[in-house]
Design goal:
alpha/beta; Purple Acid Phosphatase, chain A, domain 2; 13 helices
């Protein structure tokens, strides 16, 4: 782990050097400001690792300040690096255009374009960071989604689920952030509440006070949770016990039977897709979660943190899977990169006979930034689809 972190720091230094070499000479700010920017890049190389090293969720005072500073700088530099790469690609294309079409050089000389584009990159990175922080720190809005279920029993028409996911209570997300989320969920007066993993980023001892608002969650049939990968990073067994103490039903490759309007509804939950890497007993198993299901329960819902569980969930015979994990990418350009790791990124999709809803998450992870991937509290409603 230490070796991996060392390599990460080395790559970070190289990326900072790249940004400095590509932007500083192009900015018309004079030697004093050039020196200031060099010092800022050096400071950034030191500050950014603080955001990761200080992820001990109980950090307070100066340690908390360093965590905030490191994570904010990480987000800002991510934007700056991405925009610098895009600028360089554009400059190459512009240089080619000026050789092919002489009118391009007359319309906007290369040196002018080189200077102005550097200024645009710096300004855009600041603006994107400001917008991203606002989006991340505001309370997640409610997103309403109807899910058309084939042959839905009449008693289940309009059955509602309030889903929250990927809150990541930790270094920058505390009780004050979580309280309004719980209030908003309770105002939905849903038939059940589903929490699809990654609730925490830290130990129970550090975060017990800050996760306490979860005890106020209310659903007509209860509040249910499946574990996410971050629960395993933080100590899954301890957190499972704590969630149960808070009155939340944790589903570990098992199901419960709900009865709504006299009609049975099966609700299953699996451990995280990667859970078996931490504890063999926690290996994710949708087939086990549905084992012994009564034939009368034709509608079968599954809570599974990662969308990658969808293939096994469909094979097991589930009707609908609720997931999170992806954050919708959280901010540019990761909203494109996440598609490499997961089969689905966000929203309502169909995977064979299975409906799958992927929440973009209710909080955020790492940098307190969301850009082009808004957070959400999801209000799902089952509605009748076409009859088979």
């Amino acid at each position: 782990m230490r070796s991996f972190f060392s390599r990460l720091i080395l790559f970070g230094i190289l990326f900072h050097c790249y940004v400095g070499i590509r932007l500083i000479p192009a900015l018309p700010v004079g030697r004093v400001w050039d020196a200031v920017m060099v010092l800022w890049l050096i400071a950034s190389c030191v500050i950014v690792p603080q955001g990761m090293q200080r992820r001990d969720a109980g950090a307070n005072g100066w340690r908390a300040v360093r965590a905030w500073a490191g994570l904010l700088e990480m987000g800002f530099f991510s934007f700056l690096l991405t925009l610098t790469v895009l600028r360089d690609v554009t400059l190459v294309l512009w240089a080619i255009a000026t050789r092919v079409w002489a009118g391009a050089a007359a319309a906007l000389p290369f040196d002018t374009w080189r200077t102005e584009s550097a200024e645009v990159v710096l300004l855009a990175a600041f603006l994107m960071t400001a917008v991203g922080v606002y989006n991340a720190r505001r309370r997640a809005p409610v997103v309403r989604v109807d899910i058309p279920i084939d042959d839905l029993p009449p008693a289940l028409h309009g059955f509602t689920i309030a889903q929250i996911s990927d809150i990541h209570v930790g270094p920058t997300i505390r009780k004050r952030y979580l309280d309004p989320i719980v209030d908003a969920v309770n105002r939905l007066d849903a038939d059940m509440v589903a929490i699809t993993g990654d609730v925490v980023d830290g130990s129970v001892s550090a975060l017990r006070e800050h996760t306490q608002p979860l005890s106020r969650l209310k659903g007509r049939h209860g509040v249910f949770l499946c574990t996410g990968n971050h629960e395993y990073y933080a100590g899954a067994d301890a957190w499972i016990a704590e969630f149960r103490r808070l009155g939340i039903r944790v589903l570990m490759n098992e199901h419960v039977m709900l009865e709504h309007g006299g009609t049975p509804l099966l609700l299953g939950g699996v451990t995280d897709y990667s859970g078996g890497h931490f504890n063999e007993a926690h290996r994710s198993d949708p087939a086990r979660a549905i084992a012994g299901a009564p034939a009368a329960a034709r509608i079968r819902l599954l809570l599974a943190h990662q969308p990658r569980s969808a293939a096994a969930a469909e094979a097991a015979g589930f009707t609908l899977q609720l997931s999170g994990h992806t954050h919708g990418g959280q901010f540019f350009p990761w909203n494109f990169a996440v598609r490499v790791q997961q089969p689905f990124t966000a929203g309502l999709v169909r995977s064979g006979a299975l409906w799958l809803y992927i929440s973009r998450g209710t909080g955020y992870w790492g940098p307190p930034i969301r850009f082009a991937a808004p957070s959400e509290i999801t209000h799902l409603r089952l509605v009748p689809g076409p009859a088979r």
